[in-house]
């Protein structure tokens, strides 16, 4: 029950931030779920919840989605997901915690400090590359947002298009990641208590409701900084836990 309540709180925070700033559930949920459930089951739970959350947020933001941009990025995510799923089957839990924590910290660093150093990008090649890399990081660490964010910044996406188009990309990313890991035997849900699912879904509805109420009142930059700060602490904790375990 305490675990379910913790997941409820994490998902409420992540879903609310995602509704306000475009990212949040994977960034916040990935590191914290890894600490609570382990690096494999934790990320798989986040992938499933991100998939469900993306269905809801895609519907609410459907008028601003750029489906042409989506069609370049989302279909190729499987090309990155499969290698990540295979990698998970080859390494132990401590090493995986270190890789997940390190990958999250790098991704967060890029989003926080690296976007302004990325040169302008045009054409299909960078979009496809972002999809492949995003599929890899989403399967491994539960986050595709940082990779797509860096590309969207370099490609000069309008803010409202960026926030909306991220959502169906997350939808595909979550589905592809779970299917890839189940297909190669890289994880499962056998050790995940059933209470996680109703808690996560309830948390989504609460988070989306709160997010819709405050989306126009909270500056996106402040919401983004908050989500990155929470995610950074979680990722650092996962990294330290992995090092101690190793």
TrEMBL record:
It is found in: Cell membrane. It is a multi-pass membrane protein. GO terms for cellular component: plasma membrane. The chain crosses the membrane at residues 42-61, 70-88, 94-114, 161-180, 192-211, 223-244. The keyword Transmembrane applies. The keyword Cell membrane applies. Its main location: membrane. It comes from the Bacteria. InterPro entries: TM_pro_TauE-like, TSUP. Pfam families: TauE. Keywords: Cell membrane, Membrane, Transmembrane, Transmembrane helix, Transport. Belongs to the 4-toluene sulfonate uptake permease (TSUP) (TC 2.A.102) family. This is Probable membrane transporter protein. It comes from Corynebacterium flavescens. The lineage of its organism: Bacteria, Bacillati, Actinomycetota, Actinomycetes, Mycobacteriales.
């Amino acid at each position: 029950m305490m675990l379910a309540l913790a997941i409820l709180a994490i998902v409420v925070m992540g879903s609310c931030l995602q509704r306000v700033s475009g990212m949040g559930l994977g960034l916040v949920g990935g590191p914290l779920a890894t600490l609570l459930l382990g690096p494999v089951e934790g990320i798989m739970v986040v992938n499933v919840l991100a998939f469900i959350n993306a269905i809801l947020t895609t519907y609410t933001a459907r008028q601003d989605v750029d489906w042409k941009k989506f069609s370049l990025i989302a279909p190729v995510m499987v090309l990155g997901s499969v290698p990540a799923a295979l990698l998970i089957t080859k390494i132990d839990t401590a090493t995986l915690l270190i890789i997940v924590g390190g990958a999250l910290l790098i991704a967060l660093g890029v989003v926080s400090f690296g976007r302004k150093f990325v040169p302008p990008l045009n054409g299909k090649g960078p979009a496809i590359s972002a999809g492949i890399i995003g599929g890899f990081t989403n399967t491994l660490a539960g986050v595709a947002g940082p990779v797509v964010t860096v590309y969207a910044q370099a490609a000069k996406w309008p803010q409202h298009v960026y926030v909306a188009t991220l959502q169906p990309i997350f939808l595909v990313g979550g589905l592809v990641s779970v299917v890839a890991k189940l297909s190669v035997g890289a994880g499962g849900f056998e050790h995940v208590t059933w209470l996680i699912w109703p808690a996560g879904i309830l948390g989504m509805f609460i988070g989306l409701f709160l997010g819709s109420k405050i989306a126009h009142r909270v500056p996106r930059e402040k919401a983004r900084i908050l989500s990155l700060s929470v995610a950074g602490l979680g990722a650092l904790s996962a990294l330290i836990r992995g090092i101690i375990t190793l």
